[in-house]
Amino acid sequence: MNIKNRKFKFLPHTADRKFQAFGKTLEKVFENSALALFNIIYDEKISENKKFKISVKGKDLENLMYNFLEEFLVLIDSKNFLPSKITNLKFDQKNLKIKAEVIGDDAENYNISEHVKAVTYNEMFIKKIKNNWTSQVVLDV
Amino acid sequence: MYKENLKKIAEGVYELPKSEGMLVPGRVFFSKEMIKNIEEDSLKQVANVAHLPGIIGYSLGLTDMHIGYGFPIGGVAAFDLDSGVISPGGVGFDINCGVRLLKTSLTKKDILKKQNEVLEALDRKIPSGVGRGSKFQMTKDELKRILQGGSKYLVEKGYGKKEDYLHTEEEGCIRGADASKISDRAIKRGIGQLGTIGAGNHFLEILFVDEIFDEKTAKSFDLKKDQAVILIHCGSRGFGHQVASDYIKKMESEYGFKDLPDRQLINAPIKSPLGKDYYSAMCCAVNFAFANRQLITHWVREEVKYLFPNSEVGVVYDVCHNIAKFEKHIVDGKVREVCVHRKGATRSFGPGRIEIPEAYRKVGQPVLIPGTMGTASYVLVGAKKSEEICWGSSVHGAGRVMSRSKAIRELKGEETKEKLHKKNIEIKSRSFKAIAEESPEVYKDIEEVVNVVHDLGISKKVARLKPLVVIIG
Fold this sequence. Notes:
Chain A has helices at about 25-40, 60-80, and strands spanning about 10, 15-25, 50-55, 80-90, 95-105, 120, 125-130, 130-140. Chain A has 2 helices and 8 strands; from the N terminus they run E-E-H-E-H-E-E-E-E-E. Chain B has one domain: tRNA-splicing ligase RtcB, CATH 3.90.1860.10. Helices cover about 35% and strands about 25% of the residues of chain B. Chain B is built from 16 helices and 19 strands. In chain B, the strands form 4 sheets. In chain B, strands 7, 8, 9, 11, 15, 16, 18 and 19 form an 8-stranded mixed sheet that branches. The chains are: A alpha+beta, B alpha+beta.
């Protein structure tokens, strides 16, 4: 993939998984961070059979990122649902709120053995570098 | 810069002198060979832990130490009850991730005769992987009773034998659990997951006793050569992860994180309302994990009895790897209660401690150290020396050396499976990627790690186990 259009990349970490995600806007960098998380859990195509609405808020950008990514872990564990795509992501920058729809499928239709236990604040940042937003997150796996 | 400051104190013991902000020095237990490859960033984490208020003695790193978040994995620290703190980052997200060893009346030969049949049967019976719920259905009220009653409660309900919980750390039910301190999100994540292995490095293995190093202690643990045994490695699943997450966020709102060297070291004073609430919630997750391993034990026992009529399955011991506990230790010559954090470390109490099950009290507690799927696992026995130098603790595994992303890039799960097959080890996983990530090459050499703790005297070798059947998440 063209480096310029890259959505996310993985960085080395001994025990856990670390990624950076990119986006021209905050919406995009959050969406791409979620896609990086999904990419750790599976690398096969997930059908678009089910939809959930999510709504999260944060106290700062990092806390919002933590809560946003955690929402998917809760969906996986409590609904046995594999998210694959995010649509209609609305980012309320003033109040640090995100609303979105998550599309995916029942996990039992797939053989998935990668799991992410939790989001961590370890080395986390979300900042504008030149004209692009970059996020960095370490996930406990 | 941390590495070059290390000072050798004794064979296997290195000190990290106090630098700015550190309240106590650090100490790591590594061999001469292993210290050459110690991770600079894990030493930084040892130094960071030494910043926390009320820390007593040293910030410790055991032989299997590697980088974690906040505390290193393999990190141990004790805190004063009045001035000290409790930190979810010092326990880990997978609260009471731990290992349970089952003994059977079967031998290596019995398993080899039905190796694939056993593999398939256990894989069908015990859910593993992501998004696979448990067939054990319960109401929220029932879950709350389990959170407060642990595996002891499950046994009383018919899911096991009394000896199962008697041979478990805390007798399968840590005191102090309060289900009113648990969020709905944690309940939601946990309610469908009791009796599941999960994914990542968690596994269910059948092994055989390959070598006995200490006949007398092995006899106390009811282990003999060529006996088939079963290791269960898993924790509190999504429930525990959410408890940790919830309290990290609560502590951030209450105390902020500006003064911390790492945001993941967020903590609360042990005696503060929030510190107490976290402990009560953590105890719920500890009990959830004990109950999780108990339900798996119950199902394994059912399946083994079906495959091998007249066979017996019992519990040798069940140890916690990720926990904070109130324990009595000798500090400056006096017995004092302190709060010990073990993050990727096993308790390793020597003979005589009241906390050890009566059956083992004369010899010391079993210390269970899982290796990797292609190599050996070990049973050790706790020793007094561990109470003198590392708050009664020992290692919890081999310790990773290769990142998961590198493992996926460089190793092929298919090849690992084939290599193991040639060594008479049959493995089952939901994906080859998961096998690659957990290949023996990504871990430190378990033999070396075990020899270091044996030579240090913090726990002593009793038996080596070798795998026959491996199911990973």
